[in-house]
Fold this sequence. Notes:
alpha/beta; 14 helices
Amino acid sequence: xxxxLEPTSRTQSADQAVLEVKGLDVDIRTPKGxxxxxxxxxxxxxxxxxxxxLGESGCGKSMTAKAIAGLxxxxxxxxxxxxxxxxxxxxxxxxxxxxxxxxxxxxxVFQDALAALNPVxxxxxxxxxxxxxHRGASxxxxxxxxxxxxxxxxxxxxxxxxxxxxxxxxxxxRQRILIAMAVAxxxxxLIADEPTTALDVTVQAQIMQLLxxxxxQEDMAVVLITHDLAVVAEEADDVCxxxxxxxxxxGSVDTVFxxxxxxxxxxxxxxxxxxxxxxxxxxxxxxxxxxxxxxPSGCVYQDRCPLVAAVCREQRPALRETGPGQSAACxxxxxxxxSQTTEERLAVGDDEK
Length: 353
């Protein structure tokens, strides 16, 4: 399929932070009491760049995004922190202010397009709604804008399909429609929560290409939520690795993936299948993430860490600089950066023979 939306030539302020999150805490109410599910999370997303929130399922990535967007479930609430979008704190906004910011300041792409789209309204009606609410467009004008949006994201025959309903589109086309809704008003920030879930590999590549082109054309900051290391390596500029609701490590993708300074990041990278001998076992991180209601008092990764020591069980490591533009929450970050796994040492030995 021929992609449209070729990137335009535009001078980008690569170091300009569109979104700055600091000290974000999120609690949920349970029958057994309050549980802290996101703790002291902080990161920044730069204009024209993609920041990936990376980690296993249940590590707090989507909860962080929902808190920023003001879409937390009723049982959850922001307990502290700030999330500044172009210097305005999203977390302190009223409901009216958030509605105004939605669309023009912030766009969101959910992972389940069929659930996100309203089954009883046509695609044209749903795409045109943003223009009617924020721009005061008439129904006719909104439909014209909807058709143009569909054309921009690669929906064939938009003049005809603008009157179709969500169930009449394939999964990949529904995802394109959801992306069109998110970028309709050219937001400064786009949050994409697992945007290629349940799509086949070919369609996944097309969706990621579309997001990349939109980011470059609109000069948006993109926060990409994923657990796919390959997608992060291919699409992201910066990465924030999360574990058990905490930031484990962050920095540029090139730096973090080349020289990880947290055992969790190193474990994730080591678990990626490589061109090893047939029949050889795959690396994995032993154990599983802790229950959020039973987070240990020291390092949150202590029960799965090969370097765990007494200090790890007694004192939670602070997120600290471990290199230029890189930081990690580990007492032994420098040791992690310079150590080799058994497999790496064996590989070096084989090369020397």
